[in-house]
Write a structure and sequence with these properties.
With about 375 residues, the protein is α/β, with parallel strands linked by helices. The chain contains twelve helices and 14 strands. The strands form three sheets. It has a seven-stranded mixed beta sheet with strand order 6-5-4-7-10-13-14. Bound molecules: 5-S-methyl-1-O-phosphono-5-thio-D-ribulose (MRU).
Length: about 375
């Protein structure tokens, strides 16, 4: 469905019984929303990058099943209803492996419906509980992001002497990657609205170009002073003294602080360390996976070779010679020793006296 609005930063449009997702593969040239009717539609939209970004895929998955449930004429018991939802959530979880937000959401929703099914024989009660839990994710995410923005702007500005800062970010972590506002890009938005941002730099983020296609679009939309750079320019930009801080998002943060994020994040962290530039990760608590001791355990999604063989991250003309092998990991893991602090909606996780991120303790303390 083509949208009348010339420009939109709303990735997820939902009202009960109706879900449409902004087709991010077509941005910035076209604003087109795809209607999602079922969990299977949601699965494909996530796998094919119509919607992407850790929080946005978790919410879209949950809401795709919500619209299927709202519009179905289910025949069965409450236990059948819970089994159906549990199975569909498991299927949705299989759409992309790296972002923990998706599995965190599916497991939470599975537990809710299983518990409700123990208390009723009416399938409608189970579905109602599912809808309410899925729908609340949209509002919770925007609130979390605004809070991340506040905490992030405060810590980044406090560590630096200058009144206005230039901040580099990678990939797209903004409104398009979330229910609204964004995580790392939310921090940049907060710095800008507080008059503390001189300039944002965004990388192209090859091969899928989330930076040039999406982050640049959001920055222009919000009239934030911003410059797009090639990924390979980042170290030179740091060497030239043009970056005061780096802030990126996360797909999965292990218990020790090791962080999986868009491929290229690790290179930025290495270069930042070399140049003495603070390197922040901004993410909601749903991006933390306390079950993984370190980043070694994180499964890294490998995407189609076509993203490199063809221009525009696989969407355009062939650019590479036929017959060449391709390695295309979508994410990498930045070791925690390269991370200055982790910014969450409940506050900033800094190092303890031993020099480690006590993430589990932080989660328990703020629960
Ligand atoms: O492959 P993508 O576009 O889904 O990757 C997105 C990222 O790596 C983001 O930095 C991360 O999901 C955080 S989004 C708030």
């Amino acid at each position: 469905m083509a949208n009348q609005a010339a420009i939109s930063l709303q990735a997820i449009c939902y009202s009960r019984g109706s879900l449409s997702l902004l087709d991010q593969r077509k941005l910035p040239q076209e604003t087109v929303y795809l209607e999602i009717h079922t969990a299977a539609d949601g699965w494909s939209a996530i796998r094919e990058m119509v919607v992407r970004g850790a929080p946005a895929i978790a919410i879209s998955a949950a809401l795709s099943l919500a619209v299927e449930v709202s519009n179905s004429d289910f025949k069965g018991t409450a236990v059948d209803a819970a089994s159906f939802l549990v199975e569909r959530l498991g299927y949705l979880e299989s759409s992309r492996p790296t972002a923990v937000n998706l599995s965190e959401a599916t497991v939470k929703l599975q537990n809710i419906v299983k518990k409700v099914a123990e208390t009723t024989s009416n399938p409608e009660v189970v579905f109602q509980a599912y809808l309410e839990a899925a729908e609340i994710m949209l509002t919770d995410d925007v609130a979390a992001n605004k809070s991340i923005g506040c905490h992030g702007a405060a810590i980044i500005a406090s560590g630096l002497q200058t009144k206005q800062l230039s901040v580099l970010t990678h990939c797209n972590t903004g409104s398009l990657a979330t229910a609204g506002y964004g995580t790392a890009l939310g921090v940049i938005r907060a710095l800008h609205s507080g008059g503390q941002l001189e300039r944002a730099y965004c990388t192209e983020t090859r091969p899928f170009n989330q930076g040039s296609r999406l982050t640049a679009y959001e920055l222009v939309h919000d009239k934030i002073p911003a410059t797009l750079i090639a990924d390979s320019s980042a170290a030179a930009l740091m060497k030239a003294g043009r970056v005061n801080a780096i802030v990126v998002g996360a797909d999965r943060i292990a218990a020790n602080g090791d962080t999986a994020n868009k491929i290229g994040t690790y290179s930025l962290a290495v270069a930042a360390s070399h140049h003495g530039i603070p390197f922040y990760v901004a993410a909601p608590l749903t991006s933390i996976d306390g079950s993984m001791a370190s980043g070694e355990e994180i499964v890294i999604e490998e995407r189609s070779p076509n993203e490199l063989l063809f221009s525009h991250g696989g969407l355009g003309e062939r650019v590479a010679a036929s017959g060449i092998d391709v390695w295309n990991p979508a994410f990498d893991v930045t070791p925690s020793n390269l991370i200055t602090a982790i910014i969450t909606e409940k506050g900033v996780i800094t190092r303890n006296v031993e020099g480690f991120f006590a993430i589990t303790e932080f989660m328990e303390r703020t629960a």
